[in-house]
Protein: Branched-chain amino acid ABC transporter substrate-binding protein
Amino acid sequence: MKPSSLTRRAWLALAAAGLAAPLHAQPGAVAREPIKLALIEGLSGAFANAGDAVARNIQWAVERVNSRGGVRLPGGARPLELVRLDSKGSTEEALSLLRSALDQRIAFVLQGNSSATAAALVDALDKHNAREPERRAIFLNYSAVDPALTNERCSFWHFRFDAHADMRLAALTDVLQGDRSVKKVYLIGQDYSFGQHVNRKAREMIAAKRPDIQIVGDELHPMGRVKDFIPYAAKIKASGAQAVLTGNWGNDLTLLVRALREVGSDARLYTFYGNALGVPAAVGDAGIGSVLAVAEWHPNVGGAPAEAFYAAFRKRFPDPREDYVHARMQVMVEMLAAAIERARSTEAAAVARAFEGLAYDGATLGGLHRATMRAEDHQLQQPLVVSVMERAGGKAVPHDVEGSGYGFKTLRRLDAAAVAQPTTCRMNRPN
Structure:
């Protein structure tokens, strides 16, 4: 099929930038129809910064696959094409956009920022795929980390590429266990399924690993609606907590750490996402040695593959304000390409079956990251790194974050087996 003028212009732009390789060996061949990926994300509104960062990461991953010729299929390779759909941070809008993507016969839907939205999309997609098997699609989740999504709410059509909340908490509380200076911990999170789970599970893990620690606060706040976190920060300081554990993300995290700095709290911050999106700049020198983050990777992990990967990202996005790179989003797109090639088809059920048990050896990212998609629950098994904020410069922290002058140094690396969690998934698979 002849590509649209928009697709052709986009492809030519990539080629001019040196990012797109020819898809066909024969001169003058017409590019095949692209494989579309529908990104449903909040690209405006309270969490637009997080949505924009996701879109950059996935666009770059798409470009990397296309630069080596696209996805190999019988009859010829096909490029990937990212279709951005702005949900404005609304679950209702996200569901409407899902219907639009399905009407366009897009078989691959991507979303992550908000576990509540992810759960609604999973439910809607389950019903659609049962009702209209000729237009089925699969859901690739890069950030929605409520464990229920690969436990009691698991779905054959859903695959998660981020470590879920219990996996991240296992890593953070392992480090907390060894911090004997902490006797009091304050839990604070966003008031929706994910934030509620993090607070509840953090209590359990801390009690098991450090029964001597006192939980001096357990608080939830409205998601994306608090403009002034000073009252929360003042309560945290007054509690005497030496550590704050939070799953907050986006502006809810940035504003929280800024408020803690303003009230003079010296509590150590154990975070899921404290290594980007304005947090290091917001906390400043007060974060040195005291802001911890957990992720699958960070720019200062060291080694030639990591350095090459990060250098390539910075070349593509030289603006330091756009310095927010995730290995897992690259792995997600690379594994999608591999699953399509393994299935020899873009049909959703065939690709879903090809994903199950698929191992990624990191070869297309220079050996950077190794991971396996667990067939039992569709939860990616991968290593995690807990890091701490330091002033950038020197051998240990060569790269800063978002031009802030601060970067992160590895405290502990945990392999996939160390953070793996059991699952209660009882998956219904289509015939």
